[in-house]
Design goal:
The protein has 219 residues and is mostly helical. It folds into 2 domains: 4-35 and 152-217, Endonuclease Iii, domain 2 (Orthogonal Bundle), CATH 1.10.1670.40; 40-145, Endonuclease III, domain 1. It contains 14 helices and 2 strands, in the order E-H-H-E-H-H-H-H-H-H-H-H-H-H-H-H. A two-stranded antiparallel sheet has the order 1-2. The radius of gyration is 19 Å and the shape is elongated. The model has no long low-confidence stretch (mean pLDDT 92).
Length: 219
């Protein structure tokens, strides 16, 4: 059974108390349980495969890569695979280099994935962004979806910005800044706030409704 992040009720209640507008979104969406990617190496590979391509293309390529790895993706298998076989599943030459760098550092122990659960967020981000092809956003997604950290606010995430723009009714040019402006209300529950802002996009609220108030009035 896949491990999941259960959004704690006490944290949600605190978030609602601090931010009445967020409370309306939480009331509308309801409870959330988020699947976790508990295989750290596979999680990073999936993120790297998906960079700068569509979700559909990323899924196809990752599935092919997983098949190539015989459904057991390890750094050792990645190192053993030929460039030709990796390119054949749809990976670009640059991503092959990225995956080589990642797997090499896991194999030689310079990237201690097994100890990440015990490390501070900032240390993990520093470790991961030292890998070719891994930026701050990828590291933050790892913190959230692989380590289950609840205090991460990925302000550069476009989906998060879109959700905040709709919820707080701000101009597109202000959609990133609004995350900084509201952060003091969400602390230390940044990840929970992020989950609900992502739901605005996932549930297509931004296209179906003009505002959260329109949804509340329809109840």
């Amino acid at each position: 059974m896949k491990k999941r992040i259960s959004v704690e009720e006490s944290a949600v209640m605190d978030l609602c108390h601090r931010d009445p507008i967020m409370a309306k979104l939480i009331t509308t969406v309801g409870g959330l349980t988020i699947p976790m990617r508990t295989d750290y190496f596979t999680s990073l590979v999936r993120s790297m495969v998906g960079q700068q391509i569509s979700v559909a293309a990323a899924t196809t390529i990752f599935d092919r890569l997983n098949t190539l790895m015989n459904y057991s993706m390890t750094a050792e298998k990645m190192q053993a695979a030929t460039d030709e076989s990796l390119r054949a599943v749809g990976l670009s030459a640059r991503k092959v280099l990225y995956l080589r760098d990642l797997s090499q550092k896991v194999v030689d122990g310079s990237l201690p994935l097994s100890s990440f659960a015990e490390l501070d967020n900032n240390i993990i981000v520093k470790e991961l962004t030292g890998i070719k092809g891994i930026g701050k956003w990828t590291a933050e997604m790892f913190l959230i979806f692989s380590l289950g950290r609840t205090d991460v606010l990925p302000v550069d995430d476009i989906g998060l910005q879109r959700g905040a723009k709709w919820l707080y009714q701000v101009d597109k040019s202000y959609r990133k800044q609004i995350l900084f402006d509201k952060a003091h209300l969400w602390e230390p529950h940044y990840t929970i706030a992020s989950f609900y802002l992502w739901e605005v996009v996932h549930l297509d609220y931004e296209k179906r409704y003009t505002s959260i108030h329109e949804i509340m009035e329809s109840y």
